[in-house]
Amino acid sequence: MNPNPYLAAVRRSWVYAVVAIVVGTLAGLVLSLAATPLYSSTATLYFSSGFSASATDLNQGSSYTQAQMLSFAELATSPTVLAPVIDSLGLDTTPRALAGSIDATTPQDTVVLEITASSGDATAAAQLANAVADSLSTQAEKLAPATTGKSKPLTVSVVGAATVSAVPSSPDVARNVLAGLVVGLIAAILIVVLRQ
């Protein structure tokens, strides 16, 4: 007795669908394992104004500092900040190339700046983040507008030094495997629908 051709076609469709899911999942895993691990470390800076002769001055200084935080984030990846970092760490690169390894972010309405450095070496990432934080502190204070009083117009403090990370920030194996699974699942659905 010959098998029902329709049922045989349905079985083949589901076999292809399962294969697509498995291949997608394995592809995500293999790509993750083949990728070079990248480590990230973050240093945190706190910016405070020296305009504190009165409550009004303090409030105005705080508002001014908050308004400048995005500028300080841009300054973190500028040659003015990165050139001294290259010299201090003895790096064989340019400020433009090094800027691609640095990410400076500031939470909205705060005077906190987070500098994250990425590298294939965990220790190098931490050293880089700390060096950028130190250089930015120096340059930001230099560029702050001068005051007539004795107080410094701007003070930048490192409130969280970057530490060596034991876990790579990328590749994210779980995310990549899940993405491969989703792609495989979509392919499986298309195979079943088209073959039907």
Descriptive notes:
The structure is a single chain. The protein is α+β, with helices and mostly antiparallel strands and 196 residues long. It has helices at residues 5-34, 55-67, 69-75, 79-89, 95-99, 122-143, 173-195; strands at residues 39-49, 102-105, 112-119, 154-160. Strand 2 and strand 3 (112-119) form a beta hairpin. It is elongated and about 90 Å long.
* Derived structural class: alpha+beta
Q: Output the helix-strand order.
A: HEHHHHEEHEH
* Helix run count: 7
Mean pLDDT: 81
Overall geometry comes to elongated
Instruction: Record the strand order, biggest sheet.
Output: 2-3-1-4
Cα-atom Rg, whole angstroms? 26 Å
Beta-strand percentage? 15-25%
* Number of DSSP E strands: 4
Gap between N and C termini: 24 Å
Detail the poorly predicted runs: none
Largest sheet: 4 strands, antiparallel
Q: Roughly how much helix do the residues carry, as a percent range? A: 55-70%
